[in-house]
């Protein structure tokens, strides 16, 4: 080696690659993504870990579960993530066109319009002809606020990297819709360079959303019992889907109409294969709809299973009874707070008062035969 050369080289600060719309968990440093609902993120331990699968058991009329799916997709659009949406019951294009509006973008647009109004800086006159920076798409924050009374800007939706699957060309192939959807998700992971085996630096993630999986349009496997051996396609698809999530920078939300299942063993298998399992129990058409205890809520939210990824135990919840309610602009999940039993309290106090009055009157009638000091 020559005297002037050296094998030691000065290295600068290591470049940290940040993925938009994500943050590390404070518990286990797992990379988390928001579901679009802060209350649901809280129940999942801060968010949805990258590489995990969330199973959402639909309500009977698929009203509220579809809103959860739209929150999930709208958050992906606002964060600039890759999206893959599969649905046979409703056109995927229709679902993407009805995502809730982002209130953050409206605030940013109003602020930028006010700043670019009449109070322009005369010293920067040469910059007035240039276009203003795009402030609506805030990709550097975790979670956004959405308004259910409006729809997301069509320009943002059309500019997102979205792949739609409606099963148009997959029905007659071997394996049916399940195998075709798996191949499409696998191609997307490869084309975007999101596989964990790839040496390419990861700067983005993909959100996979499957709406109403195992509905009658996907097949009639759920109507058979285990002894008839008709579940292999659905359970194999679920197993391989979770394997794809584990081996890539992706997350998945699957909604399933489990109330149509004949054999509960199929549901137990899907719950075992999923990382997170939650169930929606709507009050529509049930006795709880007219129950005054639930008059402020629209349904029960059951947390069936929480995953313990990179940790010994799953996130610990401070309550067991959860409910969801749909307000005018948003949906929230909160603890079940029962109203106080005012009528029982009043009657109990009256009874106690009557006993005391009766006791005093009885003592007056009996005279001094009762002892003054009673031991209880």
Describe, in short, the structure shown.
The chain has 376 residues and is an alpha/beta fold.
Q: Which sheet architecture does the biggest sheet show?
A: 9 strands, mixed
Strands of the biggest beta sheet: in what spatial order? 8-5-9-10-4-11-12-13-14
Question: Globular, elongated, flat, extended or rod-shaped: what is the shape?
Answer: globular
How confident is the prediction overall: mean pLDDT? 81
Regions with pLDDT < 50 over 5+ consecutive residues?
110-136, 355-359
Q: Helical percent range?
A: 25-40%
SS-based structural class? alpha/beta
The tally of helices reads 9
Would you report the number of β strands? 14
As a whole number of angstroms, the C-alpha radius of gyration is 29 Å
Distance between the termini: 98 Å
What's the helix-strand series?
EEHEEHEHEHEHEHEHEHEEEEH
Strand content: 15-25%
Q: Explain this structure to me?
A:
The chain is an alpha/beta fold. Helices cover 30% and strands 18% of the residues. It is built from 9 helices and 14 strands. The protein has helices spanning 38-43, 64-79, 92-96, 103-115, 154-159, 176-191, 232-246, 264-273, 342-366; strands at residues 22-24, 31-33, 48-49, 53-57, 82-87, 100-102, 146-151, 162-165, 206-211, 250-256, 276-282, 299-305, 322-326, 331-335. The protein has a 9-stranded mixed sheet with strand order 8-5-9-10-4-11-12-13-14, sandwiched between helices. Helix 6 packs parallel to helix 7 (232-246) and helix 7 packs parallel to helix 8 (264-273).
